[in-house]
């Protein structure tokens, strides 16, 4: 911000005032011929970039007994000289002193005040700079001549000053005015307005700025991401999805998290098949690493999309990489849904190794064996499930079913 403010000051308001000719000054204020001659000498030396000579002349002039207008113009010239020598603190002192004398025509006084405001901003004297700038603006509105106007850059400077004081509610109006006056404003101007909306949690205002930014700078993915995030905050989830998807289709994704975010958004918005296709393609292109976390997300999208064969293959990869009771149990339930009884039995056997006392595994094992016509093994599994409160009722139902299809056994072990 410091660099931006200084470059702004240099670009919009710190030209060297090689102020009008001696004749023009004489028409406005009363200056002695000797003072006019010395000011002309200083002006000529500055024009020739002979700054030491200009300083010598102006210092000699300042040491004399001068009228207030002559002192003011001398201070103004010394301020100009300090500026071209990049001595901003000295320049501010000279311009402020010249303004304080209140000895020049009002238009010149306003130019001095404008210069003082800009230099204060450039030196990060935010409160004083804002006060001077607002004072100057008010004077221009009320008494400014035809050649005086408040420019877009002036409103921007005011907004920047308020932003440095974190008075965000005072930032929006001047920066918005600056942008309107400029037409196609520099990118940083929009970013300043956006920052103010973010700080104030004005999501509607932030949306408007971001919608403009994605059109002006479609190659900058951060604006697409910010717009999608703001849409989510505003519960405009369909817009969030379309925005992030547009960035993806435009080839703007370069980070793994972007693919994951889009996939999760697709899943939440009820398009799991697209999420599955996105993740599968991104993993194949090594845009997304095949971590266990990402594989689980892929399995979730595939199963919700009813791509059961693909989902089972993904779950099996997960189970092979990191044997886990929940994963094998999920595989068993999926195999039951697919009526893959042999695979279901193998999944159950793997889960039992990890949790031998899991009651629902006994029940699942029995169901698999019933469908494989292994009735004795099924009965043994149901008897074990019958011993647990959570699975007793279901186990009894299956035992009753076995009695019908395979005949009762004299010793069931049931209590």
Question: Your description of this structure?
Answer:
By secondary structure, the protein is mainly α. Among the domains are: 1-150, Serine Threonine Protein Phosphatase 5, Tetratricopeptide repeat (Alpha Horseshoe); 341-415, Serine Threonine Protein Phosphatase 5, Tetratricopeptide repeat. Helix content is 74%, strand content 0%. It has helices spanning 2-12, 22-28, 33-47, 51-62, 68-84, 88-101, 106-122, 126-143, 152-164, 172-182, 187-199, 203-216, 221-233, 237-249, 256-268, 272-284, 292-304, 308-321, 325-338, 341-354, 359-371, 375-386, 392-406. The relative contact order is 0.04. Residues 1-27 and 411-415 have low confidence and may be disordered.
Could you provide a short overview of the structure?
It comes from Marinobacterium maritimum. With 415 residues, the chain is mostly helical. Helices cover 74% and strands 0% of the residues.
What portion of the residues fall into strands of 2 or more residues? under 5%
Helix content: over 70%
Question: pLDDT below 50 for ≥5 consecutive residues: which ranges?
Answer: 1-27, 411-415
Q: Calculate the mean pLDDT score and round it.
A: 91
Question: What's the total helix number?
Answer: 23
Which class best fits the helix and strand makeup?
A: mainly alpha
> Gyration radius, to the nearest Å?
39 Å
Named CATH architecture of the domain at 1-150: Alpha Horseshoe
Order of helices and strands: HHHHHHHHHHHHHHHHHHHHHHH
**Termini separation:** 80 Å
